[in-house]
Amino acid sequence: MALRDIKTKIQATERTHKVTRAMEAVSAVKMRTTQSTALAGRPYARAALSILARLSGSADIMRHPLAHVRRAERCALVILTSDKGLAGALNSGVIKAAAEAVAAYPVAAVTVYAYGKKGEEYFARRGYRIARAFENKQDVVEFSVMEELAAELSQEFMKETYDEVLVAYSNFKSTFEQVPAVRRLLPLTLANIEQLVRDIVPVKGKWSELGPIESPAAYSIEPDGKEVLNYLIPRLVSVSLYHFLLEAKASEHSARMVAMKNASDKSREVAHDLTRLFNKIRQAGITREVSEIVGGREALTT
């Protein structure tokens, strides 16, 4: 390999390192912001879901349309991915988990609500109907957006357009661990709520000591159980969906920061190896030229 080619590769690698280093710094800032938002929302989400768990012992909630369990023949899938790549295997893991979750349904029986282009493009290419598609470019998403989507899903579920509503997202565990997950949003059951709470409570830290949610055998509701539940349950569905989005946001920026850090470290390593190769070849060339000069000098003296 010529020295000029090696030098060109070194310069290109150094430019790549500058870009990935800058992207790592930007992702680190966004990661801290989204992690703080997701972690700060966990106690609220857990408290909101615990209300529903405590009410689950009453007969009123069992008769509520959003808690009606029926034979699953039609499914709505909400998939939360990013619009951008460079986040390692984050999006592919969520898409794979979502595809496995709806594999038992015919394609015509699945309706997709895609939040993020990666999930939308995957299911659109495979013939699934995309009911709504949202851009996932903003780091701060208003709760009203998820509230509107939750209201639409709830209405379609009560109309029996869908028999169940699934959400595929990336559950944030730590900066270096994001787990693809698929959770059932509707119908609401105590088992689903307990699973959501297990996802919310971290393995270590302040909130890890929280006890399990228990539902009583009976519950008195005032002023009227139906009136309270008609307001409370749709609100809790919105809270659950918004919490999924916060977890997905924190996972996205964490995965991208780690991916850019790995790329920066690798580009630095490649530049170092190329520099050693450049110096080695240049030194060999200098040694060869010195040997030729000495050999020529000796030939002239003989």
From TrEMBL:
Subcellular location: Cell membrane; Membrane
Keyword annotations: ATP synthesis, Cell membrane, CF(1), Hydrogen ion transport, Ion transport, Membrane, Transport
Cell inner membrane among keywords: no
Top-level division of the source organism's lineage: Bacteria
GO MF annotation list: ATP binding; proton-transporting ATP synthase activity, rotational mechanism
Broad class of where this protein is predominantly found: membrane
GO cellular component annotations of the record: plasma membrane; proton-transporting ATP synthase complex
Topology class, membrane: Peripheral membrane protein
Any GO BP: proton motive force-driven plasma membrane ATP synthesis
Signal peptide boundaries: none
Summary of subunit composition and partner proteins: F-type ATPases have 2 components, CF(1) - the catalytic core - and CF(0) - the membrane proton channel. CF(1) has five subunits: alpha(3), beta(3), gamma(1), delta(1), epsilon(1). CF(0) has three main subunits: a, b and c.
Family in the record: Belongs to the ATPase gamma chain family.
Protein's job: Produces ATP from ADP in the presence of a proton gradient across the membrane. The gamma chain is believed to be important in regulating ATPase activity and the flow of protons through the CF(0) complex.
Name recorded for this polypeptide: ATP synthase gamma chain
